Amino acid sequence: MTYMSRSFWFTFLGAFGVFLLLSSLIIYKASKINGGLWVYPLDDTYIHMSIAKNFAQHGIWGMTSHGFTNTSSGPLFTIVLSLFYGFWGVSDYWPLVLNLLAGLACCLLLSWQVQQFKLPMLGACVSAMAVVLLIPMAGMAVMGMEHAWHCVWALAFVWSFRNLIFEKKSFLLTLLLAILGPAIRYESLFLVAAACLMLLLNKSWWQAIVLGLLAWLFPVLFGLYSISLGWNFLPNSILMKIGTIEPLSLWPFGKSPMVSIWKLYGIPEAFPLLFLIGLGLYFSSRKADRLWLFFPIAAMMLHLHFANVGTAYRYESYLFVLLSIPALEVFSRYHQQWLNVLKSKWLLLLVPLALFLSPILSRMVKGHTIQIKSSNNIFSQQIQMTRFAETYYKGSSIVLNDIGAVSYYTDPILTDLVGLADVEVSRLVKSGQNQDSKWTEYITASRKPDLIMIYDSWFYNQIPESWVKVAEHRLERNFICGDDEVSFYATDGIKAAKLRAQLMAFQPKLEGAGQIIFVYPN
User: Fold this and answer.
1) Which of 319, 333, 412, 430 has a CA between 20 and 30 Å from the CA of residue 420?
2) Distance between CA atoms of residues 121 and 134, nearest Å
């Protein structure tokens, strides 16, 4: 067995061991405090599960079995999940299985890439484990969404692009990955755009043009299909974030570049990696080196300008893949000199180095521990709402603003007041016609909801006086849910009396600590 093969397996076992251990601990601890039930740490996961279930069982790409919805910006993951549902039956655990496989693929790719930097065996292993912790890969995996697979794609794309810049090869692989990426997650277009920019600077005109055009293949085809069914070109999950429902709007281009810099302060753990990349740029003399090292900076600035960070670290997780590989390469070039300096002046450098690395260490810890608290929050709020709806209102007309779990388990006739899964609502919201209660009355008048469960704080001055507030579900120690309180409404006195009796009967069945249903008197 050669040194390289021993080093690879040592590195892989270290990285995958850390990933599997942390994933197992999160699943075990979260399930334990949830009464033995595994619950995903975000309600959004159940959106994918609901679409996948309806696609597998009814051939309908929708939040419910009642019609098409263009809701997800990670459609390929949902398609693969629907295949699992179709072949092996619907199970809450399939998203977790798919993401554990993503963790395996990530550790394999990462371990192979680290070997190319010629680090000592222990250094390679520690570096791979650090990247797995920094992403954080286990935290992404237990979410059960597309983010873990997006990180795997980013690893592959970054390396293929590196080969294209340095060795003038792997264009076909880079092209195939550029086509695949937006199907996994639309934000992949930022990496492709940055790659195209580097190719243009390298005077590889035809490669940049072909790469840039074909990367839009899936978004354009799916967007045209969505339009044909009366929906918008882009998924509502994207349109609701960028603040427009116009497919060709140039609104984001009107923002100041300072927006990107301001958002960068929201991810301070990126600064140490940017510092390393900056050192590499300073000492680099070859054009290929400068293009390779500027590539992640360009992609990150595009993401920060057009997209978000935060929310359990998931939005920027692939950016840390993107930053880590070039940063590791720079570290591998100069690590021996830096280690020599550290050995001779370790006492002087100890405090500055600890401060320098503290954001990274914080992300490594919080990126995993928050998932346990988040899982318990979703169990204590969304799952309790779901159980109530499943007991009394399964298949009924329901108004919601958090749509995932309730839709997945009860298949309601859904009115989504946020607009993710409701094209009529999204157009009213984005056109600014939701400034008072008239729009809410307009939407619900024709749909005649049997149950309304919403956050009052999301709809200030938009709740009709005709609605009867029956109860509030209150959650203590909220960390991830949109609000501590879910309000229950009915549209008339008869429905209100029925709902009041149902809630009082359901209250003793609540599971989870720190919650109560406060039922208003008649």
Assistant:
1) 319
2) 20
Token digits of residue 241: 């974030």
| pLDDT higher than threshold 80 for residue 173 | yes
The span from the CA of 153 to the CA of 102, in Å, is: 10
7-19 pLDDT per residue, tens: 899 999 999 999 9
Q: What is the pLDDT of residues 393-436, one digit of tens each?
A: 999 999 999 999 999 999 999 999 998 999 999 888 877 777 78
Number of structural domains the chain divides into:
2
Q: Which residue has the tokens 């509502």?
A: 236
| Chosen domain end from 349, 377, 405 | 377
Pseudo-torsion of CA 368, 156, 87, 75, nearest 10°? 80
**Cα gap 384→381, rounded to integer Å:** 5
pLDDT in tens, 367-386: 999 999 999 999 999 999 99
Domain for residue 265, yes or no?
Answer: yes
DSSP 66-96: TB-----S-HHHHHHHHHHHHHH---TTHHH
Q: In the chain, what is the greatest distance between 2 CA atoms, to the nearest angstrom?
A: 80
Using omega within 30 degrees of 0 as the cis cutoff, is the peptide bond preceding 296 cis? no
